[in-house]
């Protein structure tokens, strides 16, 4: 993030963060900017120390220009990856950590809460009643589907048993018929030979 971009984000975001700022004492964007800047500072310090160590230990193997180029490439790679990760972190933090839920009221604003609570509870009751009815309907439908599936399975089991019995009978009858035919053929062959 560059400073102009950060400033415009802080200005735009702080208008919507007044309640959070009232509770926390700082704006959520200033919090994330602090983390972002601290990371960049630590990364810069760490890469600088690494560069110095490489130049000191391996100056006979690699030139200062090569080290500088590679460190710049590493820094760009880390910055790109960190920017992507930090965008997700920032979005999650703004929406889930540093965001005061709509149902939370600060002590100094409790006076305004009572009327809103009554309306909200009535709405929630209606929503829950609709959800209960939908679940009851779904349970009823699923019960009917389960009953139909059980009946269908029973019919399929009966059909399978019938097919297995038919197959066994057909197999036994075929063996007997083949045996009888062979006996008859042998008798005819014997008769033909004798005549």
UniProtKB/TrEMBL annotation:
Gene Ontology CC: MIS12/MIND type complex; nucleus
InterPro entries, per the entry: Centromere_Mis12
PANTHER family according to UniProt: PROTEIN MIS12 HOMOLOG (PTHR14527)
Family per record: Belongs to the mis12 family.
Ranges in a coiled coil: 111-169
Keyword Transcription part of the UniProt annotation: no
Keywords carried by this UniProt record: Cell cycle, Cell division, Centromere, Chromosome, Coiled coil, Kinetochore, Mitosis
Location(s), subcellular: Chromosome, Centromere, Kinetochore
Entries under Pfam families matching the protein: Mis12 (PF05859)
Alphabetical GO biological process terms: cell division; kinetochore assembly; mitotic sister chromatid segregation
This protein's record includes keyword Cell cycle: yes
Descriptive protein name: Protein MIS12 homolog
């Amino acid at each position: 993030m560059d400073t102009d971009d950060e400033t415009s984000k802080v200005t735009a975001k702080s208008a919507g963060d007044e309640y959070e700022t009232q509770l926390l004492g700082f704006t959520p964007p200033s919090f994330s900017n602090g983390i972002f800047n601290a990371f960049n500072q630590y990364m810069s310090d760490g890469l600088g120390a690494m560069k110095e160590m490489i130049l000191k230990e391996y100056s006979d193997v690699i030139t200062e220009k090569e080290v500088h180029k590679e460190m710049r490439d590493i820094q760009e790679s880390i910055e790109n990856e960190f920017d992507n990760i930090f965008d997700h972190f920032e979005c999650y933090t703004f929406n889930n950590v540093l965001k005061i839920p709509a149902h939370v009221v600060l002590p100094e604003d409790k006076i305004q809460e009572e009327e809103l609570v009554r309306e909200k509870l009535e709405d929630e009751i209606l929503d829950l009643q609709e959800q209960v009815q939908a679940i009851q309907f779904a349970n009823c439908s699923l019960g009917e589907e389960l009953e139909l599936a059980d009946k269908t399975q029973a019919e399929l089991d009966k059909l399978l048993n019938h097919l297995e019995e038919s197959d066994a009978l057909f197999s036994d009858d075929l063996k007997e018929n083949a045996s009888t035919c062979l006996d008859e053929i042998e008798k005819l062959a014997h008769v033909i030979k004798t005549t």
